[in-house]
Amino acid sequence: MSTTSQAAFVDRHEADVSERDAARVWGTSARPLPDWFQQKRSRGGGLVGAWVPIVLVGLPLAVILAIVIYPTVWMFYHAFHDTNMMSLFSGNWQPVGFANFGYVLTSDRFQDSVSNLAFYLTFGATLQVLLGTALALIIYELVRPRWLQTLVLILLVLPMMMPPSIAGTLWKFLLQANNGAINHLLINLGLMGADQRIEWFSVDLSLVSLVIADTWQWTALPLLIVYSGRVSLPPAIYEAARVDGASTWQVLTRLTLPMLREIIAIAFILRFMDAYKFVDKVYVMTSGGPAQSSELPVYIAFQKGIREFQIGEAAAYAIIIFVFAAVLITLFLQYLKRVMRHQGVTS
Amino acid sequence: MDTNAKRIVVWLILIGFGIWVLFTLFPLYFMIITALKPVEEINRMVPTFWPETFRPDNFRGIFADPGSLKSLIDSVIVASANTALSLFLGTLAGYALARYLTGVVGENLAFFILSNRMFPPVAILIPMFFLFDATPWGTDSYWSLIILYLVFNMPLATWLMMVFFRDTPRELEEAAYLDGYTPLRAFFKVTLPLVFPGMVSVAMLCWIFAWNEYLFANLLTGTTVKTFPVHIPSFAAGSQTLWNFVMAFSLVAMLPPVILFIALRRYMVRGLSLGVVKG
Fold first, then answer.
1. CATH of B63-272, one of 1.10.10.10, 2.40.10.10, 3.30.70.330, 1.10.3720.10
2. Alpha carbon distance B36, A288 (integer Å)
3. pLDDT, tens digit, 9 for 90 and up, residues A83-104
4. How many CB pairs under 8 A join A and B?
5. Is A56 part of the contact surface with chain B (CB cutoff 8 Å)?
6. ipTM score of complex
């Protein structure tokens, strides 16, 4: 049935219902229904008044207005003012135009943090999705029997359920230079001399340590998503490919990966979206150090805003991140819309 | 292809896979044995990979500090209250979006609400810090966390509930109307039971996200209200961290999400992938 005829059917149907309903409300007496009653009903388009859905959606929108829109506007305002803690509490901040942005964008601290973020996105988020995809397909294809598959899946997903702050604490403990478990494990395995120690939290390696801890924890998310996607692929296609004599490699590159393309993209986007919110582990493991070598833009914004009380600068950071995020979010949602239509989740 | 070569490739892949499994499990294993060691053994220059002295008493020792139990209770209060609020608002809005606002406006509204989940929290937290600071109860209260966690949990709940409501056939509700049900009664008696499994998974996801949250709790609270991630650094003697207590307490604190996940993993995937992957 086409959409229009279906809608017409539903309208007619609902009109009947509302008449019946009205008759019930007004009793069975022969008293005619007043005009305004029926008109009001039909304008609502159904059994409930038009105000009901508006209120239902309005509640969360009001909450979002209060806790997202208001703060964002506040940030935009202060990004163009020289606000710091003193002036915020005495109420005399001055407009400074784009000075905050100029200061932030030209500062070494910001530029370093952006290159740190790029490093993290490449070797953290991207690697996690590639690894997760490979692991998911290996589990599905090669791990037998079925119960072992489930067990391996649960074991590999355990880190993801751990609070990120605890994962950070754990890795900080494991990566201690002198008596850390990882260094001594490398020695025991013969990969490193007995008197050698890797300084995991040095200027050169602190970012790498963060990436290791994050990859350990979050590879499970793409793994879980891709695995579920692979499970839901129709077996008939694989049967047909087998009958046609396709090799394993052909099945992987011509069938599995193309059919999982959208799901892998979703996993990638989810990891990417979390990446610029990545601060828990930075706080717990390195506090951005040593010598600001593992700072990310979001971390600096928090430090400036809540520890150093340079509200104007913090706001400039926040706005830059906001613009970057807004572009990404828009692109992502466009894609999600397409995927959901394609998968039949929405009309 | 040569069967021998093929078998070698498969074995190489399986070995690589085994290495990854070990890499995943080793930190968890070391966490557990550290929680069972006495602190003197942990502080040696060469760590032991199997505890020489077992000290299961550590799990009792962490609760010698009354703050430990209180921090867990605080976390339960914040996570549960926030979940209830998120789920309530999300279910209502999700229902309206799935049933009544199905046009272009409704769709864009749904995507707008979802976009708030992906929002960088930095743009929110700093102004909210000063806003809560100006309220009579201050930043350091249950309310500040319960309200702020709505930023990421409510959009998720709304979006997922909308997806779940769309999965349920509208015709059932209409049949209920014909039987003389009011819209409210049809919603509670017909539609809600159908989406109940979905609601449970949304509730669990929201609860886990709120339970695991560290950043907001660290920056806003810490004295009157102290959720468990903020409490962990207090396991120290002077400048020395008591790693056995840290690990024992962490293990206790990560039990709820792990148990929830294992019990509900079937529903989790759908929620984690924003409803795209039907797990």
1. 1.10.3720.10
2. 31
3. 877 777 777 777 887 888 888 8
4. 268
5. yes
6. 0.89
